[in-house]
Amino acid sequence: MSLLDGVPTVLFVHAHPDDETIATGALIAEMAARGIRVSLLTATRGEQGEVVRGPLSVLEGTDALTRERERELACAAAALGIGFADRFWLGTPPARAAGLAPRAYRDSGMTWIRPGLAGPADDIDGDALVRAPLAEVTADVAALIGQLRPALVISYDNGGGYGHPDHVRMHEAALAGSRATGVAFAEVVQVKVDGATSGAGVAGVAGAGAGAGAAEWFDLSAHLATVTAALRCHASQLTVDEGGGHIVHSGGQREPIITAVGLRLL
Ligand SMILES: [Zn+2]
Questions:
Q1: Average pLDDT over residues 79-106
Q2: Tens of pLDDT along 183-202?
Q3: What is the distance of C-alpha 171 from the center of its chain?
Q4: Residue 209 Cα distances to 186, 189, 212, angstroms
Q5: Which uninterrupted H or E stretch holds 143?
Q6: How do residues 14-24 score in pLDDT, each as one tens digit?
Q7: How far is the CA of 12 from the centre of ligand 1 (A)?
Q8: How far is the CA of 164 from the centre of ligand 1 (A)?
């Protein structure tokens, strides 16, 4: 039994353009291959993110960066098999609570507390996602869930994967919105897989967490080419290592391309 058995529709809830591909691109590609209809809700447009050095770096801090990241997300979503009509922005109907005027939530930014763990930025915009009341964000997510009625909602774990405040906030809102609408929720479980760790090693890590709420792991290495193509869409955020298997973020951090993802029902 897989928690994806008999699931016709899934909604992914993410904070920034590129998270859908970096964290869950292989899983989305797998679902598309299984005939599962995937919808994607993205909370912000990654306005605070750094820009990869090169021709696009002139966009940093400008409104044009917002448009570029919207374009990049459209490119990546298409590569992963998500239809145009199945992409949504938080704060824009139908991902907006009834009776409230549409709004944009902005990227809250982050700083590194230590390698691998992010925390709040020093200067947080007034329209930042983390400044918005959790009840408002949850109501917007719930409005979309109520409209789509997916069989399953998927988002970050309660640590936001690596601590980004926007990721943590979207975990909270996606979980609460799922509960409010009676839809199943699963969190993404990720292990930083280094080059020496095989798929068997990943399964072993999952086993270590076995018990109530054990994660189901998916070996998604067959989708590496699809994920790589989607990653290349996010050219203002990252570069793909030509040697294969790694991405390099605009800040210089290297990270393996994720092709094994765990899901845990909460
Ligand atoms: Zn993110």
A1: 97
A2: 999 999 986 444 333 333 34
A3: 10
A4: 16, 11, 9
A5: helix 134-148
A6: 999 999 999 99
A7: 13
A8: 7
